[in-house]
């Protein structure tokens, strides 16, 4: 197959972000119910992502009150915990994510350059 010729089997625009964009962040936030700390962590994470990773992130929120078995997979010992699954290596941040600088450093996010 000629790579320049599009066809239904080519990955084209159907590639997943981790395949075509090394700058894509896949984040997983572990919480326990709708507590003030959990809600704060969700809001703070969304704010950081919108400001520094616009269009380059995916957030999965896992409520351990509903699915406690999912904590073992990422070795969650405290909540809320944010796990950066992509890009590698895996990183974790514990807390409500209110310290933006700590979150940026912990996730190794480079601030967006302004043109």
From TrEMBL:
CDD domains: KaiB_like. Residues 1-14 have a biased composition (Polar residues). SUPFAM superfamilies: Thioredoxin-like. It comes from the Bacteria. Residues 1-20 are annotated as: Disordered. Residues 28-109 form the KaiB domain. Pfam families: KaiB. This is Circadian clock protein KaiB. The lineage of its organism: Bacteria, Pseudomonadati, Pseudomonadota, Alphaproteobacteria, Acetobacterales.
